[in-house]
Design goal:
Chain A: It is a multi-pass membrane protein. The complex is a heterodimer of chains A (about 290) and B (about 325). Chain A is mainly alpha-helical and about 290 residues long. Helices cover about 70% and strands about 0% of the residues of chain A. Classes of the chains: A mainly alpha (about 290), B alpha/beta (about 325).
Chain lengths: ~290, ~325
């Protein structure tokens, strides 16, 4: 029979693989391999993506047509569709970022993480690959939602560059949330447990804010929380970038007046804290 | 315990490995050595610490104490170097079920840094050797249990590692697939791979392993070749089944006189007695019983099996 281990044509000599690329390069190259693997799964199980895409469309249609007439306090000249759609973008990309956690929890449950950890690949590759493929999914989600938004009356009233900046900030913030979800997912060990916990975090985060209603309509304490919630400032930033504010310059607390700066600050803090924490957790995690 | 010089050329050396989870000592000071090119079976019941030991040896968990060297490299100091020299396959086939067989192996090759072209070539070659070429482009979700295990094993040897760790490689396989897997493993060992495998199946340890370490409650409670371990629980025994219940007493007297050892029984018509002379002793006993007019239903020479070893050892320590 054919030799298994060492047919000379292609079998690498033991321990003689190309020297591992240095830290950063290896993390990116290996991360790309892992991201590709995740995207193959998205292609093979389109139902997963379907759910991710359908729920924001559902939200857009429900809120636009069911609550649209009843929600007041909007800036003059701004339709509810214009107000709502950037908010739905935020909600959806933040929800989209939770895939990072459930994906890792599932990989751990199935033992794939042990396989990866026994390979001489970069220690960060699985996390980089995971967050990258989830970012790509979010890009797709944003495209679908934009089309849906345009169909129900949302308009971009700003320059092309501003619009691009708006989409970029949405995706950047979602990417930072991905790293938070990575840590939670690694601590959970089962996708179901992760789902429960992430809902408890994500729901208040996206509802105590200005995604669906302007925050100055909220009761005092809730309003303060909503104003300092980075999800709100992201929605405000998006509305600014897409020209959905009716030209009004908001005044009040720091995050209300500087939503873009405040949101970017959060992105930096989240990445600075959760990239190292998730990486450390990955290095010590193992399926039971 | 320090690593001594005679261990220097062994593929796997572990000394005094301890791993605690809270108050539980999953490993309570395990020593083992696997000489290069040999097969060691880590044998033990569920929860004995086999998987934990494999995870320590394969860099997945850090022990609380002890020294470990694999393929000449210190596992604690240079885990990444160890990973380049080992192949690992876990208790649950760690293949990605959404990827095809080819995609799984190609991905692993890329992550071993074989390079894009060589990773593809190696994937095709392994699929052929493991008779998975026809299924190469199907998601591995559609594979049978045996095919999945073969793919998993193929994944472990993508980089032709000199040392291979397999955690219960045949658990849950049907007998045909198990024999199949044994053949593949024998081929790998013949080609020079050092193999450490864990198993609950004594037959598997008996068939594949040069050395066996019996592990229970986180301790190595016995070590040796299959024959050495068998001789620890005693030599051959002759077992007879008397046809007529009334003759059991007479048979017992004949056995005691002919063999000289203590006669055991199962409470029924089945008697056993230890013998020194193997088949010759059995013939003498049958003759003596015949002379005494005892009718037999069945008679046999029984060698101790690894089951006896296992039950004796693990029974004694628990």
């Amino acid at each position: 029979m054919t030799s298994i281990a060492s047919r000379p044509a292609t079998a690498p000599r033991p321990g003689s693989q190309a020297p591992a690329p240095s830290g950063g390069a290896s993390a990116l190259l290996d991360g790309f391999v892992v991201a590709r693997r995740n995207m193959i799964k998205v292609r093979r199980v389109p139902e997963l993506l379907f759910g991710t895409l359908i729920s924001p469309i559902m939200f857009i249609v429900l809120f636009r047509y069911v609550f649209g007439g009843a929600i007041g306090g909007l800036p003059p000249g701004v339709s509810y569709a214009e107000f709502l759609i950037p908010g739905i973008f935020v909600q959806t990309v933040v929800f989209g970022a939770t895939i990072t956690g459930s994906g890792l929890a599932e990989d751990m449950q199935k033992g794939i993480i042990d396989r990866f950890r026994s390979l001489p690949m970069s220690r960060m590759a699985v996390l980089i690959g995971r967050t990258t493929s989830d970012l790509l999914t979010n890009v797709l989600v944003v495209i679908i939602m934009s089309v849906t938004g345009l169909l129900v009356g949302w308009r971009i009233n700003s320059s092309f560059l501003e619009a691009v900046a708006g989409f970029a900030l949405l995706l950047l913030f979602a990417y930072a949330i991905s790293w938070v979800m990575a840590l939670v997912g690694l601590l959970m060990r089962s996708p179901e447990a992760f789902q429960q916990i992430s809902f408890l975090v994500i729901f208040p985060l996206t509802f105590v804010g200005n995604i669906f209603v302007p925050s100055d309509t909220l009761p005092n304490v809730v309003r303060i929380v909503a104003e300092w919630n980075p999800v709100s400032t992201l929605a405000s930033s998006a509305r600014e970038f897409f020209g959905n504010t009716g030209g009004l310059q908001p005044s009040g607390s720091f995050p209300v007046e500087n939503p873009v700066l405040y949101t970017l600050l959060w992105v930096v803090i989240l990445l600075a804290v959760f990239v190292p924490l998730s990486t450390r957790q990955f290095a010590r995690t193992t399926s039971r | 315990m320090a690593l001594n010089t005679s261990d220097a050329d062994a593929a796997v050396v572990a000394r005094g490995v301890v791993k605690r989870y809270g108050d539980v000592e999953a490993l309570a000071g395990v020593d083992l050595t696997v000489p290069t090119g040999t097969v060691l079976a880590l044998l033990g019941p569920n929860g004995a610490g086999k998987t934990t030991m494999v995870k320590v040896l394969t860099t997945l968990i850090t022990p609380d104490a002890g020294e470990v060297r694999v393929a000449g490299v210190d596992v604690l100091a240079e885990p990444q170097e160890v990973r380049r020299r080992i192949g690992v396959s876990g208790q649950y086939a760690a293949v990605d079920e959404y990827l095809t067989g080819f995609e799984n192996l190609d991905m692993i090759g890329r992550l071993y840094h074989l390079g894009r072209r060589r990773a593809k070539e190696r994937a095709r070659e392994l699929l052929e050797v493991f008779r998975l070429t026809d299924a190469a482009d199907r998601p591995s979700k559609t594979y049978s249990g045996g095919m999945r295990r073969r793919l998993d094993l193929a994944g472990a040897i993508v980089a032709a590692p000199p040392v291979l760790f397999l955690d219960e490689p045949t658990t849950g396989l049907d007998p045909r697939s198990r024999l199949d897997m044994w053949d593949l493993l024998r081929d790998l060992v013949r080609e020079g791979t050092t193999l450490l495998l864990t198993t609950q199946y004594l037959e598997e340890a008996d068939t594949l392993a040069d050395d066996i370490v019996v592990i229970d409650h986180g301790r190595a409670i016995a070590h040796g070749t299959a024959d050495q371990l068998k001789s620890q629980v005693g030599g051959d025994r002759v077992e007879v089944e008397v046809a007529d219940h009334a003759q059991v007493g007479a048979a017992r007297a004949v056995l005691a006189r002919a063999a000289g050892g203590e006669v055991g029984d199962d409470g029924g018509r089945r008697l056993t007695v230890p013998v020194a002379g193997g088949a010759t002793a059995m013939v003498e006993i049958v003759r003596a019983l015949d002379d005494a007019g005892v009718q037999l239903l069945d008679v046999g020479l029984r060698r101790p099996t690894l089951d006896d070893v296992f039950l004796t050892l693990t029974g004694a320590s628990s």
